[in-house]
Input
Amino acid sequence: IKLFSGILDDASALGTALAGCRALFLNLMPNFTEKGGEERQGKAILDAAKTAGVKHVVHSTVLGLETFNEQETTVNQIFAAVMSGKVRVEEAVRKSGIEEWTIIRPG
Output
């Protein structure tokens, strides 16, 4: 196991960490301080993974996304923020151009 220093917004650090990798396990925390932050970081990781030649992404997300409707969620804004970030990262995985991907919705 190798550890790399960096942050998820640092493309250079992501590229260094992903160099030589064939697979990626993607499990992001919700970003409560920046709307769209989880999606932005997910896309940055996926872009770096594709550039590095990663062939398979396993993305761990949340249960219930198939029935989530952001426009209908007004009662719990925290729940809506978590779910909308997860929906967008799942979509980014599907559209990443990486050959194979698996989405896990534990629950």
Q: What stands out?
A: Residues 5 and 13 are 7 Å apart (CA to CA). Residues 77-94 form the longest helix (18 residues). Helices lie at 11-18, 37-52, 77-94.
